[in-house]
Design a protein that fits this description.
Elements: H1 2-9, H2 13-26, H3 33-45, E1 51-54, E2 59-63, E3 71-77, E4 80-86, E5 90-92, E6 95-99, E7 109-113, E8 120-125, H4 126-129, E9 133-138, E10 142-148, E11 159-163, E12 172-175, H5 185-190, E13 195-200, E14 210-215, E15 226-227, H6 232-245, E16 264-270, H7 274-286, E17 292-299, H8 304-316, E18 320-325, H9 331-339, E19 347-351, E20 355-356, H10 361-369, E21 375-381, H11 402-415, E22 422-423, E23 430-433, H12 435-441, H13 455-465, E24 469-477, E25 479-480, H14 490-504, H15 508-518, H16 522-536, E26 542-546, H17 553-566, E27 571-579, E28 585-590, E29 601-603, H18 606-616, E30 618-623, H19 631-635, E31 644-647, H20 673-683, H21 693-706, E32 709-712, H22 715-725, E33 730-731, E34 754-762, H23 768-781, E35 785-793, H24 796-801, E36 805-807, H25 816-822, E37 827-830, H26 840-847, E38 852-855, H27 858-867, E39 870-873, H28 879-887
Parallel strand pairs: 16-17, 16-19, 17-18, 21-24, 26-27, 26-30, 30-31, 31-32, 32-33, 34-35, 34-37, 35-36, 37-38, 38-39
Antiparallel strand pairs: 1-2, 2-6, 3-4, 3-7, 5-6, 7-8, 9-10, 10-13, 11-12, 11-14, 14-15, 19-23, 20-25, 21-23, 22-24, 27-28, 28-29
Domain Glycosyl transferase family: 751-873
GO molecular function, one term: glycosyltransferase activity
Protein name: Glycosyl transferase family 1 domain-containing protein
Length: 894
């Protein structure tokens, strides 16, 4: 269109005509008033010329200076031709509109002439003109793709998913598309307008396992046909083949089982771990019901004591059957030996010999197994069972004692409502298998999985291919020490078998990852956490401390506040912002220590938080930071109707930069909100959100106004908050020092070398540029000063290049005094150039009994002026003078 416009503006009418003719042979009239203006300009200067345009809805446009022209239209295909006259439906200046027959798309070409003088107007290649482009692909949860009509990118393309299954009762289903604006960013950048679509696989399941995606005209999209489940048929063939190759044989029995019961055989392969095995067997015998028996498989254990132990159980208990292998064949072979010793009607529980079962575990697992006909396996919660782990979902929880197992199993039974959440695989540490599922699927693949790991996952995927489901039972908890048999080679074996598993079941890792991303077991882990908490603190009163997920002094203060509440029998919790594995924003409520109840995770919703706080009997909120939560979410907490206090740790309440500094780290001087907004747009935000400064201040003022109390740790902070937000916080220092003799600068005789300490993580606002300038000046003058940075900086390399700076790297608090002694530090320099609100770094320096030199700004200067322990210097003191002060502090005694 731009090329046509340029030719018309330059009066290159011949070239303009060529381009317009070429345009209409490929495209519909451009849907913008400028296009009509360009054609009008051309026709005004070329009154004998006419053009025809065709839209994809069958509308014809004749652009001509002549009015009320009838058209003779001819639709042709290889085996037919039809001609008819068209009269204009609507006439506008230089443009007449016509409508052609509805079936025009079924023909090959359209020709247009003037019936009065046989003037030829135009011809259209219909298949080329109406072609659609598009692509479709399947993800783990959706089918998605795009489509468009090159002739008219704005024309809505109708898409359909057509079943390829001849017996499908639902042969077709429409797919909604998103139609973008013609001038959106994607079009301007790529020149393409793509109509995108995405639909959940679950909504297409009624079409069967395969379907094609095509337009209403029958154009198939690239990537079509689509298989709902990758290689479904191959997976089923593989599963059937293995079930025939390794059939799950069983023993005949003359006993008639009660039809109202489901007998169970607990198969326990045994190799090593004498004491763990003894405890396991004792607990299984203690907690089994009358319809449960044990099949012990001695997998060629080299331990005589173990062999003696299992023989004792075999001889002592009629419900125990012992099978012995002459060699150590590995877990899969031992398990298969036990599985083939079951009776025909018996369900099986495959159980590791290092597990700790508890009361009614069999009954609850069985209840879950028979909750639906297609459930094939059930796996309980455990401390160490990959996706079934609790309380830590990564399986890092320690092995529980027998008492803790009993306790957790009891609580799990109390919170369980009979739900059986689907899982992608069972876990062989404790795996309830229905008899019918085992018979259908066959045995574990001992031929390729060697000593074990992954064999139950392969088995589970085979069962899934045959239509069986795997579920978790949140109502049972079984302790697990894990890997008694091959712990020394576990890592290598796992790596080898995982490769094998993914080779056999392509995409297995992705399947597990996608399931973990959704974390369907979180609600059950959370419920169990709350049940444990109710048991641990039956008369619970709690306080919620809203904090961020970053490092810094705030974390220390929150810890001190937690100690305050614990001393008053109030349980403190932290509210922290986190994100799920897929990036979904969440809230986590953490106890002290944080790992006590790790599953108190909820959506960032005031209603979800209100329900959880009701369970925690929360009576007070402390808001320490909104960073990471978004300020509007924190402001919404007012609606909880719980009294709250606000603690000021920084200036994020009115400064998106947090520290009242610009990009260079220098103090900004606190300009008006308009200049602050310019700073935000120029320098960016350090809070993680870009709320306009005016809105930020309004939200903060509202939050502060409705707070019970707003606390600030220094008079300097009080003044700044009052000046900027009109709220006067209560002055409350974060720490109190009693009977303290504040350090003073010592007298150093002669031209001795000074060792100046710097403590912390030194970024720009913490004075990095100042430290670097001082170090370079020191090196240039060959001054007798050495700097020791206990910590690190934003650019250690540049500091080290000066040759006068030593850097320790990350440190623990208890290491500070050791570094002071090791490097014989004389005193400290605190280079921070932003008005700190308190500064725990200053406290840590004083605890080394060394004085400090700091800039005259913020709480750091206020505290030094209040009690001594150092001196302050002007913020913009020239570096040569500052270097002189660092060498000989002016208040050192004569």
């Amino acid at each position: 269109m731009l090329l046509i416009a340029s030719h018309c503006i330059c009066a290159n009418w011949g070239l303009a005509k060529q381009e317009i003719t070429s345009y209409f042979s490929r495209y519909s009239p451009f849907p913008h008033p400028v296009f009509s203006e360009i054609l009008t300009l051309f026709l005004q200067h070329n009154q004998t010329t006419s053009f025809c345009g065709l839209s994809l809805d069958g509308t014809l446009y004749l652009y001509s200076t002549q009015a009320d022209i009838r058209l003779s239209a001819t639709l042709s295909s290889p085996d037919s031709k039809t001609s008819f006259l068209l009269s204009p439906l609507f006439i506008e200046h230089f443009c007449s509109t016509y409508k052609i027959r509805e079936n025009w798309r079924s023909f090959q070409s359209l020709s247009l002439t003037d019936p009065d003088n046989s003037t030829f107007f135009s011809s259209f290649d219909i298949p080329a003109f109406t072609q659609c482009r598009g692509f479709v692909e399947k993800t783990s949860t959706h089918i998605k793709g795009w489509t468009c009509s090159p002739a008219d990118p704005t024309y809505p393309v109708k898409l359909f998913a057509n079943s390829l299954m001849p017996t499908s009762p639902y042969p077709s289903q429409s797919l909604p598309t998103h139609i973008p604006k013609l001038f959106d960013l994607d079009f301007l950048v790529t020149g393409q307008v793509r109509h995108t679509f995405s639909i959940s696989l679950s909504k297409l399941s009624r079409l069967g396992t395969s379907f094609s995606v095509q337009t209403a005209c029958g154009h198939k999209l690239y990537g079509s046909p689509v298989l709902l489940t990758d290689m479904t048929e191959q997976q089923e063939v593989y599963a059937r083949y293995i079930s025939l190759k390794f059939p799950a044989l069983y023993k005949k029995t003359e006993s008639d089982f009660n039809k109202n019961t489901h007998p169970v055989a607990v198969v326990i392969p045994i190799y090593s771990g004498l004491e763990a095995t003894r405890i396991c067997l004792d607990r299984v015998l203690r907690h089994k019901n009358a319809f449960t028996r044990l099949i012990l498989v001695n997998d060629g254990s080299p331990d005589p004591a173990m062999c003696h132990l299992v023989k004792e159980y075999d001889g002592q208990f009629s419900c125990v059957t012992l099978l012995s292998l002459s060699d150590n064949c590995g877990f899969p072979t031992a398990a298969n030996t036990g599985l083939c010793a079951r009776f025909e009607q018996e369900d099986v529980i495959l159980l590791n010999s290092d597990t700790l079962v508890a009361d009614t575990w069999v009954e609850r697992l069985q209840q879950a197994a028979y909750a639906a006909e297609d459930i094939g396996t059930v796996t309980p919660f455990s401390n160490n069972a990959t996706i079934f782990s609790y309380p830590e979902k990564d399986g890092s929880s320690p092995v529980p004692s027998e008492a803790i197992c009993d306790h957790l199993n009891t609580l799990a039974g109390q919170i369980w409502d009979g739900s059986t959440p689907d899982v992608p695989t069972a876990h062989g540490f404790c795996m309830y298998i229905k008899a019918a599922c085992l018979q259908d699927t066959g045995l574990l693949r001992a031929d390729i999985f060697a000593q074990g790991y992954g064999e139950e996952n392969d088995w589970s995927r085979r069962a899934s291919a045959l239509g069986w489901r795997h579920v978790a039972c949140p109502g049972v908890y079984v302790g697990h020490a894990e890997s008694q048999s091959f712990s020394s080679v576990k890592t290598d074996l796992i790596a080898r078998n995982l490769k094998l598993l993914n080779h056999i079941h392509s995409g297995y890792d992705t399947l597990i990852k996608n399931w973990q991303d959704q974390d369907p077991l979180l609600p059950f882990r959370r419920a169990l956490d709350l049940k444990r908490l109710a048991y641990d603190a039956p008369n619970l009163l709690s306080a919620l401390l809203v904090t961020h997920n970053r490092q810094g002094g705030l974390t220390r203060h929150v810890g001190l506040r937690a100690t305050f509440y614990l001393a008053r029998n109030i349980v403190p919790f932290q509210l922290k912002p986190i994100c799920s594995r897929t990036g979904k924003p969440l809230w986590q409520i953490q106890g002290f220590p944080a790992e006590t109840y790790p599953n108190l995770i909820i959506p960032r919703s005031r209603h979800a938080l209100k329900a959880l706080l009701k369970s925690l009997n929360c009576t007070i909120l402390e808001i320490h930071s909104y960073i990471g939560h978004t300020l509007n979410k924190i402001v919404e907490l007012q609606a909880l109707k719980i009294p709250y206090d606000v603690y000021i740790h920084d200036y994020s309440w009115f400064c998106p930069r947090i520290t009242l500094t610009g990009k260079d780290g220098a103090y900004c001087g606190e300009p008006d909100p308009k200049q602050c907004q310019t700073c935000l747009e120029t320098c960016g935000s350090n809070t993680g959100e870009t709320t306009p400064v005016i809105t930020l201040r309004a939200h903060s003022q509202s939050l502060f106004h409705h707070a019970r109390t707003v606390y600030a740790p220094s008079h300097d902070t009080v003044r700044r908050i009052k000046r900027q937000l009109g709220v006067s916080p209560v002055y409350q220092p974060w720490e109190t020092f009693l009977n303290t003799e504040w350090p003073r600068f010592s007298v150093l005789s002669g031209p001795m070398r000074r060792t100046i300490g710097i403590l912390g993580a030194i970024g720009l606002e913490k004075g990095y540029a100042q430290v670097l300038a001082l170090a370079r000046l020191t090196a240039q003058l060959n001054a007798p000063i050495q700097f020791v940075l206990i910590g690190y900086s934003c650019n250690d390399h540049a500091l080290l290049e000066t040759g006068v700076v030593t850097i320790t790297g990350h440190y623990k608090e208890y290491e500070i005094q050791g570094f002071v002694n090791q490097y014989a530090i004389d005193w400290f320099f605190m280079p921070s150039i932003w008005p700190e609100t308190w500064s725990y770094v200053l406290t840590q320096i004083w605890l080394t009994e060394k004085p400090v030199i700091a800039y005259d700004i913020g709480a750091q200067a206020e505290r030094i002026k209040q009690v001594g322990g150092g001196m302050v210097v002007p913020l913009h003191l020239p570096y040569p003078r500052l270097l002189a002060v660092l060498y000989t502090p002016r208040n050192a005694p004569e």
